[in-house]
Design a protein that fits this description.
Strand content of chain A: over 45%
Helix content of chain A: under 10%
Radius of gyration of chain A: 13 Å
Structural class of chain B: mainly beta
Distance between the termini of chain A: 38 Å
Radius of gyration of chain B: 13 Å
Largest sheet of chain B: 7 strands, mixed
Structural class of chain A: mainly beta
Oligomer: heterodimer
Order of helices and strands of chain B: EEEEEEEEEEE
Number of strands of chain B: 11
Strand content of chain B: over 45%
Distance between the termini of chain B: 36 Å
Largest sheet of chain A: 6 strands, mixed
Number of helices of chain B: 0
Helix content of chain B: under 10%
Largest interface: A-B, 27 and 28 residues
Shape of chain B: globular
Number of helices of chain A: 0
Number of strands of chain A: 11
Shape of chain A: globular
Chain lengths: ~110, ~110
């Protein structure tokens, strides 16, 4: 009954290469998607978002892609840096006014120098 | 802006004891959320308030859990009695009133129930 799923618990990439984090959702009513980043002993912080009317949103090294037909989104980080090592959470919302977000389990990214 | 403030940062207690977690949202934010982080389920929404009123508590696991928001600057999450399976990191987050406004999280409370 997990509406937002991140099937890869962890990912390891080399510095300078691309990191691709994936997320799947089941509820077709979701219309807004976000990625949050979390460092140890800190709360999650907002990274990037995308509305369901778009299929791509870019912010510097971070790009989020949305495939509505497949109910899939991904986060690309290019180039990856050691400071990007963190837990990344995918989140979805079905009501932009409430702010209620459903999160996935998270993916731990390790970027090796 | 001090951000969302949670206390305590760490709580160790024995099974059966009452636990109270506290949260001060960002000033001016009108929505407050309590989340629980576990390895298996990630970040689970427990309850959220809008203008101090509980809107959705469907994520509260059992009657042992209760949450209050007596005013716009303070909320508590209480577990009574606590059990070892309640051990997790509990996050509070707040949000302004605009469309697609993002959540701002506190640093969390690491709860260990022995």
């Amino acid at each position: 009954d997990q509406q937002v799923k991140q099937n890869s618990p962890s990912l390891s990439v080399q510095e300078g290469r691309i990191s691709i984090l994936n997320c799947d959702y089941t509820n077709s009513m979701f219309d807004y998607f976000l990625w949050y980043k979390k460092y140890p002993a800190e709360g999650p912080t907002f990274l990037i978002s995308i509305s369901s009317i778009k299929d791509k949103n870019e912010d510097g090294r971070f790009t989020v892609f949305l495939n509505k037909s497949a109910k899939h989104l991904s986060l690309h980080i290019v180039p990856s840096q050691p400071g990007d090592s963190a837990v990344y959470f995918c989140a979805a919302s079905g009501n932009s006014n409430t702010g209620k977000l459903i999160f996935g389990q998270g993916t731990t990214l390790q970027v090796k120098p | 802006d001090a951000g969302v403030i949670q206390s305590p940062r760490h709580e160790v207690t024995e099974m059966g004891q009452e636990v109270t977690l506290r949260c001060k949202p960002i000033s001016g934010h009108n929505s407050l959320f309590w989340y629980r982080q576990t390895m298996m389920r990630g970040l689970e929404l427990l309850i959220y308030f809008n203008n101090n009123v509980p809107i959705d508590d469907s994520g509260m696991p059992e009657d042992r859990f209760s949450a209050k928001m007596p005013n716009a600057s303070f909320s508590t999450l209480k577990i009574q009695p606590s059990e070892p399976r309640d051990s997790a990191v509990y996050f509070c987050a707040s949000r302004g009133g605009g469309t697609n406004e993002k959540l701002f999280f506190g640093s969390g409370t690491q709860l260990s129930v022995l």
